[in-house]
């Protein structure tokens, strides 16, 4: 492993901290990913079924949800980190650290995923929806047996995009004290001119993206009719 020490001397000398930063990134990614997935899916479904002409059409609810999603998507994430500080302190007791970063990550990424889900479900053949309505299926049955079943491949595809975006956001959150690879790339790599740390952190993030993209593509291929 001498070659590794030669290429990344500062990574090797700070290997405990570097490994910890990887786990912190994975923790933020998993925890926020689960919450974004659940909340974003529900919100995306609600946007589709409450749209005028759909199975649970409600113009007022649709307009409120649509405007909330639009507004939240318009706020730059770096500003959102500061904006939700009071809420973060209220929910987790602190605004600094890995767990605290989950709050802005969820708030920042959920509207994006919800809109992606909306687009995925909107691509479902409306003829299938109309046929389900004609057969007397309930709105809940239509959501699960038509929208989610037929849109599964597109939802999986948009989920990959969202997870990869989350990786980038965790790195950005790390730059303001959330920990993870973004934090170590700034505090050690940039601030202390240890460029090999920055390069190593970047390579790990790229590896995460490639792994997620690879397995995500397999899932999409399996779900595609």
TrEMBL record:
<feature type="transmembrane region" description="Helical">
    <location>
        <begin position="26"/>
        <end position="49"/>
    </location>
</feature>
<dbReference type="InterPro" id="IPR035906">
    <property type="entry name" value="MetI-like_sf"/>
</dbReference>
<protein>
    <submittedName>
        <fullName>ABC transporter, permease protein</fullName>
    </submittedName>
</protein>
<feature type="transmembrane region" description="Helical">
    <location>
        <begin position="77"/>
        <end position="107"/>
    </location>
</feature>
<keyword id="KW-0472">Membrane</keyword>
<keyword id="KW-1133">Transmembrane helix</keyword>
<dbReference type="InterPro" id="IPR000515">
    <property type="entry name" value="MetI-like"/>
</dbReference>
<keyword id="KW-1003">Cell membrane</keyword>
<feature type="transmembrane region" description="Helical">
    <location>
        <begin position="199"/>
        <end position="220"/>
    </location>
</feature>
<feature type="transmembrane region" description="Helical">
    <location>
        <begin position="160"/>
        <end position="179"/>
    </location>
</feature>
<feature type="domain" description="ABC transmembrane type-1">
    <location>
        <begin position="22"/>
        <end position="216"/>
    </location>
</feature>
<dbReference type="InterPro" id="IPR051322">
    <property type="entry name" value="AA_ABC_Transporter_Permease"/>
</dbReference>
<comment type="similarity">
    <text>Belongs to the binding-protein-dependent transport system permease family. CysTW subfamily.</text>
</comment>
<dbReference type="Pfam" id="PF00528">
    <property type="entry name" value="BPD_transp_1"/>
</dbReference>
<dbReference type="GO" id="GO:0005886">
    <property type="term" value="C:plasma membrane"/>
</dbReference>
<keyword id="KW-0813">Transport</keyword>
<keyword id="KW-0812">Transmembrane</keyword>
<dbReference type="GO" id="GO:0048473">
    <property type="term" value="P:D-methionine transmembrane transport"/>
</dbReference>
């Amino acid at each position: 492993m001498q070659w590794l020490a030669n290429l990344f001397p500062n990574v090797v000398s700070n290997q405990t901290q570097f490994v910890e930063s990887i786990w912190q990134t994975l923790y933020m990614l998993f925890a926020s990913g689960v919450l974004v997935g659940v909340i974003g899916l529900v919100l995306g479904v609600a946007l589709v079924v409450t749209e005028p002409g759909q199975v649970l059409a409600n113009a007022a609810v649709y307009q409120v949800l649509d405007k909330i999603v639009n507004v939240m998507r318009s706020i730059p994430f770096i500003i959102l980190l500061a904006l939700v500080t009071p809420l973060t302190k209220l929910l987790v007791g602190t605004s600094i650290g890995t767990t605290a970063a989950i709050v802005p990550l969820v708030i920042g990424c959920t509207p994006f995923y919800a809109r992606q889900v909306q687009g995925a479900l909107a691509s479902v053949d409306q003829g299938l929806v109309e046929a389900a309505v004609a057969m007397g299926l309930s709105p809940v049955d239509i959501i699960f047996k038509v929208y989610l079943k037929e849109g599964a491949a597109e939802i999986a595809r948009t989920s990959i995009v969202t997870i990869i975006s989350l990786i980038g956001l965790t790195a950005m959150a790390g730059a303001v004290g959330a920990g993870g690879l973004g934090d170590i790339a700034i505090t050690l790599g940039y601030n202390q001119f240890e460029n090999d740390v920055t390069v190593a952190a970047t390579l790990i993030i790229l590896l995460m993206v490639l792994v997620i993209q690879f397995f995500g593509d397999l899932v999409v291929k399996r779900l595609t009719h």
